[in-house]
Amino acid sequence: MNILLLTTRLNLGGIGVYVATLACALKKRGHKVIVASSGGELEDILKSKGIEHVHISINTSSEIGPHVMIAAMKLLKIIRKENIQLIHAQTRVAQVIAQYLEKFSKVTFVTTCHGFFKRRFIRILLPCWGRRVIAISDAVREHLVNTMKVSKENIELVYNGIDASVAQRHYSKEEITAFKKEFNLKADKVIGITARMSSVKGHIYLLMAMPKIKQAFPDIQLFMVGSGDKKYEDKLKTMCARLKIEESVIFHPSIRDIHKALVVMDIFVLPSVQEGLGLSILEALAGGLAVVASNVGGIYSVIKHEENGILVPPKDHAALADAVIRLLKDEALAKAMGKRGIEIVNEKFTIDKMVKDTEAFYLRALENR
């Protein structure tokens, strides 16, 4: 099958990692894959696997404008030249471009819905969901049906997958010590989060929980890994100063080898106020970490309360603190949850399962046409 994966950008983060992972896995299974985007840090992964990347200038959230038609015209030539059989769009701008491409090329297009959206007028006027839609979690599927009014028959649930073998690599004590030194972590106990700097990830509630956590563990450190909204990050740093916890909080930009960051953590925390599934949670679980997370969005598809982690109400920093303290005090419980987390990832959230399910989804989309 000849497939065009279309997205806005290829930055470190959920959608960028999803596209790069899917492209490499599809190529491995014998498909011809071309990726089109405005580029980003993950381009070199595609290059290393011999996957063509087409640069289009769509690094914007605006779905209307000359950039849409310019990108569509450029891609239309590639679709015809490379005999593309299916277009898979990942973001709103990509969906609109794909709609034009299907109209002028008659090539089937499908989409993946990675999160939650407001049903604005432009989305009603131009839904652009394609022939079929992948929902990455049960909650996202419900959102598509109930809020976005997508036909239930056109939606399929395909969970994100990760390479669990990479996450489960064994690190020596010397390596972990070296990583801690690299990240300026000096405490015996470290809690952490890996997520883009965005208010929807709920970093602010984790900071608000820190004073209570520090009462139980005075030397604790919080390791926050992620890039994104600089103004939001500055706001978080100001809050650290106000709460007098700035010396206990380490900010670090996104890194390619996220497992280096995860291996220095004792507990992983994701206090999101909105979440499609939580790729960072999958990575933490695959690494054997117990997780504390908000009970929102698709997180419940991954975290089974009291089994491989603890779910707390969103925006409840007191409950967040209590859950973290409980796991830090009960190392046996945290270890048992971490072990179960590895099992759940291996059962439901592997790259192999994701790509096979996506491949079957593609075939049904082409058959239905």
Write out key terms for the chains shown:
369 residues, alpha/beta, Rossmann fold, 2 domains, 7-stranded parallel beta sheet, 6-stranded parallel beta sheet, 15 helices, 16% strand
3D architecture notes:
The protein is of the alpha/beta class and 369 residues long. It folds into two domains: 2-161 and 350-368, Glycogen Phosphorylase B (Rossmann fold, 3-Layer(aba) Sandwich); 164-348, Glycogen Phosphorylase B (Rossmann fold), CATH 3.40.50.2000. It contains 15 helices and 13 strands. It has helices spanning 14-28, 43-48, 66-81, 92-105, 121-125, 138-146, 164-167, 173-182, 203-216, 230-243, 258-262, 279-286, 317-329, 331-348, 351-368, and strands at residues 2-6, 32-37, 52-55, 86-89, 108-113, 133-135, 155-157, 190-194, 221-225, 249-252, 267-270, 290-294, 309-312. A seven-stranded parallel beta sheet has the order 3-2-1-4-5-6-7, with helices on both faces. A six-stranded parallel beta sheet has the order 10-9-8-11-12-13, sandwiched between helices. Helix 9 crosses helix 13 (317-329).
